Amino acid sequence: MQTGHYSALGLSNDATLEEVHAAHKKLLRQFVQRHKAGQPVSREDFDALENAYATLGDPEKKAEYDRALYGEPPLKTFPDTEAAASVPEETPVHHTLEFTGSGGEYFRIWIVNLALTILTLGIYSAWAKVRREQYFHRNTLLDGSSFDYHGNPIAILKGRLIATGLWIALSIIEYFFPQFYLIALFIVSPAIPWLVVRSFRFRARNTSYRGLRFDFHAGYTDFFRAFWPYILLVLAIVLFQTRMFPSEKIAAAQIKRDISYLLCTLIFPVLAYALAAPAFIRAFKRFQINNLSFGDSRFDCAPALKAFYLIGFRTFLIVAAVICVISFSFTLIFATLITMPFIMLVLFLAPWIYFQVRVTNLVWNSTALGRHRFTSNQTFKELFWIAVSNWLLTLLTLGLYWPWWKVRLAVYRARHTTLIASGGLDNFIGEAIKDQNAIGEETTDFFDFDIAL
């Protein structure tokens, strides 16, 4: 006999906990395969599957559900419930992410998105983003279950129109009324934090796992509390530049080709930004992650500031080495003509990949979700090879290799990211699912939009 949640999983009412886990993974794989084959997957069927697993995959909830069906649990339920209860609650279980997509599949999505975006003069890019995000989310698995993306293309288009309108307005003022540009910049700048916060909230609330959505809790004032030192720094640099190096003197220096004067206009802001960059990146990552939640569990990211500055210093040494190598290579005519493009590609990628790998590992290894934590073990050598080969293949194929590039990166990053669930992931999802209704479609409003590409 099949009833309710058991029917959604294709099981009889006396199914064991192990049979529930096996059925959920089997059906989820079937959904993924149907999606890959281009067959529509009903949202109702997917929600029914995840809700059924959220109940029957948790020993306590399963026993409660069985009592509601029978008045007392069926005999086969007792051993599984007792066995699950005998496992120590704090036993850590490692769940490494898995990406199941392929370059060929994504190429078909990408080429259609590109063609329609060009034909509609960019308007279709919002719908293209939804298709892209849904493909990557639904092919990213954690413990056999996929993530999902629910973004509304209209909301994404609305955000991009707002951001584009502000950029066009500032460009017009800068070109036709340069004397008012600084004033316009100060007037428009307060809108930037609002755009960023709404975009983060939109992305979080439209991302789900096992039917439960994420949420982003920061508001407009939270942004200023997190970034006020850096906002003041930018304002100070802008005021210093306008006073010490007015635009008319810079224009005169350009006419006279006074390189020393032009370099002086860059040295101070570059040094100031470089010294503040590690602290800013740490503050940005903490703002982005610490305001994120899944159910009633908040993310917590606390990387050491010293570690960011150490990464920044080592990256600076790599950049210095790159400059020295390029300067030496330019003295060799043969190298300049034959191999210089390849040398430039490899050398410029090196510091960026090093910085990216170290920061990613540092952030994820310092992040927790309730009692559970994350680990990341990316390596410079592996990601550097992926980046170099991706660039070369993309150049050789005139850009057509791009979908395979994105899939290779997704596969690598998933394979090197792990969630260590304390007491098991099923129990955690069972606890979090209680707050599912608090974060749903009703949380969206007119001001929810996304500005990211």
**What is the alpha-carbon Rg in Å?**
26 Å
Main beta-sheet strand count, sense and barrel state: 11 strands, antiparallel
Query: Might you state the CATH topology name of the domain at 1-86?
Result: Helix Hairpins
Oligomeric state of the chains?
single chain
CATH architecture of the domain at 1-86: Orthogonal Bundle
Global geometry: elongated
Instruction: Tell how many strands the DSSP assignment holds.
Output: 11
Could you give the distance between the termini? Answer: 49 Å
| Low-pLDDT regions | 73-89, 434-447
Beta-strand share of residues: 5-15%
What is the CATH class name of the domain at 1-86? Mainly Alpha
Average pLDDT value?
79
Which class best fits the helix and strand makeup?
alpha+beta
Tally of alpha and pi helices: 18
Short synopsis of the structure:
By secondary structure, this protein is of the alpha+beta class. It contains 18 helices and eleven strands.
Secondary structure elements and their pairing?
Layout: H1 4-8, H2 17-36, H3 43-56, H4 59-70, H5 77-86, E1 92-96, E2 98-99, H6 103-119, H7 125-138, E3 140-142, E4 145-149, H8 153-176, H9 181-188, H10 191-205, E5 207-209, E6 212-216, H11 220-244, H12 247-256, H13 259-290, E7 292-294, E8 297-301, H14 305-329, H15 333-365, E9 367-369, E10 372-376, H16 380-396, H17 402-415, E11 417-422, H18 425-432
Antiparallel strand pairs: 1-11, 2-3, 3-4, 4-5, 5-6, 6-7, 7-8, 8-9, 9-10, 10-11
